[in-house]
Amino acid sequence: MCSVPPKLGRLSRSLKLAALGSLLVLMVLHSPSLLASWQRNELTDRRFLQLNKCPACFGTSWCRRFLNGQVVFEAWGRLRLLDFLNVKNVYFAQYGEPREVRRYAETKDSGSFLLRNLKDSERMQLLLTLAFNPEPLVLQIFPSDEGWPFAKYLGACGRMVAVNYVGEELWSYFNAPWEKRVDLAWQLMEIAEQLTNNDFEFALYLLDVSFDNFAVGPRDGKVIIVDAENVLVADKRLIRQNKPENWDVWYESKFDDCDKEACLSFSKEILCARATVDHNYYAVCQNLLSRHATWRGTSGGLLHDPPSEIAKDGRLEALLDECANPKKRYGRFQAAKELREYLAQLSNNVR
Ligand SMILES: Nc1ncnc2c1ncn2[C@@H]1O[C@H](COP(=O)(O)OP(=O)(O)O)[C@@H](O)[C@H]1O
Ligand SMILES: [Mg+2]
Questions:
Q1: Does domain 170-350 correspond to CATH entry 1.10.510?
Q2: In sequence order, what are the residues at sequence separation of 6 or more whose Cβ sits closer than 8 angstroms to the Cβ of residue 199?
Q3: φ, ψ for residue 93, nearest 5 deg
Q4: Ligand 1 proximal residues by C-beta, below 6 Å
Q5: What gap in Å lies between CA 350 and CA 121, rounded to an integer?
Q6: What angle (nearest 5°) sits at the alpha carbon of residue 341, between those of residues 257 and 266?
Q7: Distance from the CA of 238 to the center of ligand 2, in angstroms?
Q8: Which UniProt keywords apply (predicted)?
Q9: From CA 294, how far away is CA 2, in angstroms rounded?
């Protein structure tokens, strides 16, 4: 996502007004159908769910719940009109407690048959999903129930996938008390570590790291990745086996001082060909924690304005800087490790 440069501020405001105006006209024009769609539960509609696209769909495991009308849009989400506005393809719905549903284009409930023998058609669907949007696969292969930091996958019907609603975006904690932000920062570094080094020897590299792609559970305060569309899965065992060129040379991602928000520099080819990679630490430090993180007109990152004794000490800033933009060779690996320890210590101190 890019920020609008200040020069365009005025222009974008009038564009917004124009858009709002035409929206009102559209609403008036469509009011009878609007009213009807308000009363009707679209989520029981096979066409809306695109059930006819199956088996080129995400699956059918939740169809009974959808077709029975147990899943309903929340307030504004009920407006059919929001469909074409909903560029993000994320809808909020209720099933007992709040859930989130979203629409994807291709595939099938894949998790259930992933590890079994695949028929040719299933293999095709799996590859298609991988090519189109791997998110539902990532959620099923790395389930939250087994400790992975993703939203819980619930099921699919047609091209609609249901996942658990996590909570508010990380962004809404940007001005939370220092202790809270230290805890969130520590969790983010732990996520970076878990996705890089785990018993499964899969490295999951986060390619879209921003304040709106993480959410925080309201009860447990746990940080969860809510946008797993841009996750690169590297099979480290395979890399060790195939030994591509330079596979065992530690790879250091390059700091990206671009003037947009939340940019990251990476090469998928390299991430898939090296066994030791500092990409996740880089992404979290540069885009979320350090003073280099810019988001929606703010700067300073999640750990902005530390209490004076921590600022005076200087260690935190030095570690964050080295983690975002290392000056020493392999400095980021070391800084990330120390940062995790330091944040753990700080969050214990303040608890
Ligand atoms: N499981 C979820 N729980 C809570 N909020 C969510 C969840 N999934 C998405 N969101 C919210 O919807 C927004 C858009 O979802 P996201 O997957 O990031 O879409 P996009 O691919 O368009 O960026 C997120 O920034 C977040 O605020
Ligand atoms: Mg997103």
A1: yes
A2: none
A3: -140, 170
A4: 88, 90, 100, 151, 163, 165-166, 169, 212-213, 215, 226-227, 229
A5: 55
A6: 30
A7: 30
A8: Secreted, Signal
A9: 11
Residue partners of 111: CB distance under 8 A and separation at least 6: 137, 140, 141, 153
Segments making up each domain of the chain, as ranges? 42-97+117-164, 170-350
* DSSP H or E segment with residue 256: none
Residues near 234 by beta carbon (within 8 Å), at least 6 away in sequence:
202, 203, 204, 205, 271, 272, 277
Q: Which pair of structure tokens corresponds to residue 303?
A: 């750990």
Instruction: Determine contact, residues 1/261, Cβ cutoff 8 Å.
Output: yes
pLDDT band at 73 (very low <50, low <70, confident <90, very high): confident
Which tens digits make up the pLDDT trace of 161-203? Answer: 899 999 999 999 999 999 999 999 999 999 999 999 999 999 9
Residues in the chain: 351
Closest CA to 162 of 266, 96, 92: 92
Mutation pick for ligand 1 pocket among 164, 166, 174, 227 (CB with most ligand atoms within 8 Å): 227
Q: What is the pLDDT of residue 115?
A: 44
Determine the atom of ligand 1 nearest the C-alpha atom of 88. 22
Q: Look at residue 207 in the predicted model and tell me its pLDDT.
A: 96
Q: What is the pLDDT of residues 218-262, one digit of tens each?
A: 999 999 999 999 999 999 999 999 999 999 999 999 998 887 889
Ligand 2 center to residue 128 CA distance, Å? 21
Nearest-CA neighbor of 157 among 250, 258, 63? 63
Q: Is 204 buried (19+), middle (13-18) or exposed (0-12) by CB count in 10 A?
A: buried
Confidence of residue 3 (pLDDT cuts 50, 70, 90): very low
Of 143, 109, 141, 140, the C-alpha closest to 126 is 109
DSSP class of residue 172 equals: G
In this structure, which residue's CA is closest to atom 16 in ligand 1? 227
